[in-house]
Design brief:
17 helices; 403 residues; mainly alpha
């Protein structure tokens, strides 16, 4: 079995466990906080924390996985420490308007700030662990966060502080387990010398901030939603991510490893289309299934309130977004690895269109406007990678072996 296929299967399989833990976490929050103001606060903070973690992980994956193997991990981490500090600082600043000034009179936002720091460091360590071939061990961080959140919610019920403390503990423990194997020196590593700056980092920063974290816009304008609606949106995203997360986690790493092959464009485009179509259908199927009593009843019983009827339409409207997000995530990895600057104009166009549509849409249609605006932003992103660049045309793009 090829290394790429083996990596994909292992990461997909372990992502199923991550998915189940994430489902358990969301059900614990839904049962304790329901669709309340406290739930809104928790999920607003979680959006920023998750964005910081995904931002750092995606950026450092793109920088480090394609890097020459002789470069030491400690040196790479040191080289990008300023970038990690920048990500952390931006996320900490973003917490203030997302949570609202009045929320900072309570301890929960301060714990969320600590979570941001732990999440960025953990994302960097996980990217180095994956670079060293420890993709499976990297799930210690993915599993620690939801387990800690569940324990915190059960230990301190009735508010957002308990699950937030648990989330912080999960990040810290998961990061500690990864640190030694991620930074361990390997045979063949050369003495490190600073690499010349090629400008790729700043373009990856822009791409990751604008494209990967489009959901931050929801958190910033969530104050115009009715109380509890932002929590409902996040509960709906639970089911969308249940379909999207498993193949995406594996496909991202595999696609980055394939990105420098001469036939990468045609190969990635083929798998992007097949996977995106399947995921869109699967999410739509989940939404329809929630209308069926044998499916809805146990879900409602697990949360203690009729959550299925509240979120099925949000999930159905998210089906096109989910399919397009997977398609773009796989298809654009060649540009991420080789020419991130070319993505900038598409990123900004998608973000601008999303904001223009979402603000009046939210005032008119409430939270239903969010998945529609996300879908339109993803449609724009197809233009970022659909056609190969002129250099790729000259190199050829015949299909290669399957992933």
């Amino acid at each position: 079995m090829s290394r790429s296929r083996n990596t994909f299967l292992w990461m997909a399989g372990l992502s199923v466990v991550t998915l189940l833990l994430g489902v358990a976490r969301e059900f614990a929050i839904a049962r304790e906080l329901r669709a309340s103001g406290a739930a809104d606060i928790f999920f607003r903070g979680l959006v920023v924390i998750g964005a910081a973690r995904v931002f750092g992980l995606s950026l450092f994956r793109a920088r480090w996985i394609p890097a020459p193997e002789e470069l030491p991990a400690r040196a790479l981490l040191s080289e990008e420490r300023g970038v990690a500090a920048l990500i952390t600082g931006v996320a900490l600043v973003a917490l203030v308007p997302v949570l609202g000034l009045s929320a900072w009179a309570e301890p929960t936002p301060w714990v969320m700030a600590a979570c941001v720091i732990a999440a960025v460091l953990g994302g960097a360590i996980r990217a180095l662990a994956e670079r060293a071939g420890h993709e499976r061990l990297g799930f210690a961080l993915e599993w620690g966060a939801p387990v800690g959140t569940i324990v915190g919610a059960l230990a301190l019920p009735g508010g957002a502080l308990g699950p937030t403390l648990g989330l912080f503990a999960g990040f810290v423990l998961g990061g500690l387990l990864l640190t030694a194997p991620a930074l361990r020196a390997r045979a063949g590593e050369a003495p490190w010398r600073p690499r010349p700056r090629d400008g790729a980092t700043r373009w990856l920063l822009l791409d990751t901030l604008v494209y990967v974290n489009l959901g931050l816009v929801d958190a910033l304008i969530s104050h115009v939603f009715a109380e509890g609606d932002f929590a409902l949106l996040n509960y709906a995203h639970l089911f969308v991510n249940a379909v999207l997360m498993v193949p995406t986690a594996a496909a991202t790493v595999v696609a980055l490893r394939l990105a420098r092959r001469p036939d990468a464009h045609a190969l990635l485009r083929r798998w992007a289309l097949v996977g995106g179509f399947g995921i869109g259908l699967a999410v739509a199927g989940v939404a329809i299934a929630l209308l069926w009593s044998p499916v809805a009843a146990p879900i409602n019983a697990a949360t203690g309130w009729p959550i299925a009827g509240e979120i099925h339409l949000l999930i159905l409207l998210s089906a096109p977004f989910a399919g397009l997000r997977f398609t773009n995530t796989v298809g654009r990895q060649q540009r991420v690895a080789t020419d991130p600057k070319s993505l900038a104009s598409w990123d900004l166009a998608g973000l601008g269109l999303r904001v223009v549509l979402l603000i009046p849409g939210a005032l008119t249609f409430g939270v239903l406007a969010s998945p529609v605006a996300l879908t339109i932003a993803e449609i724009v992103q197809l233009g970022a990678w659909w056609r190969p660049s002129s250099s790729e045309w000259t190199e050829g793009s015949e299909p290669g072996a399957p992933m």
